[in-house]
Amino acid sequence: MPKMKTKRAAAKRFKKTGNGELKRYKAYKSHILTKKSSKRKRNLRKPTMTDASNVKNMKKILPYL
Predict the structure, then answer these.
(1) Which one of 29, 30, 38, 45 is most buried, counting C-beta atoms within 10 A?
(2) Are 47 and 24 a contacting pair, CB within 8 Å?
């Protein structure tokens, strides 16, 4: 059986934490920032964990993470 390939786009966006969760960065922080409040932009800076409903799919596209 051949090796499974990692989806490189996903590998660049997600990191595995020490206890096995997937860390991701938030969207909506790249442009049109003038209308967004400072509080909103500040909260977008912080990384967060991938939602539990997506973990199964993430494990499939990142087999060796």
Answers:
(1) 29
(2) yes
pLDDT per position as a tens digit, 6-65: 999 999 999 999 999 999 999 999 999 999 999 999 999 999 999 999 999 999 999 998
Q: Using alpha carbons only, what angle is made at residue 27 by residues 22 and 29, rounded to the nearest 5 degrees?
A: 130
CA-to-CA distance for 8 and 31, rounded, in angstroms?
A: 24
Contact 64, 38 (CB under 8 A): no
Please give the angle made by the CA atoms of 21, 24 and 26, to the nearest 5 degrees.
145
**What band does 1 get if pLDDT is binned at 50, 70 and 90?**
confident
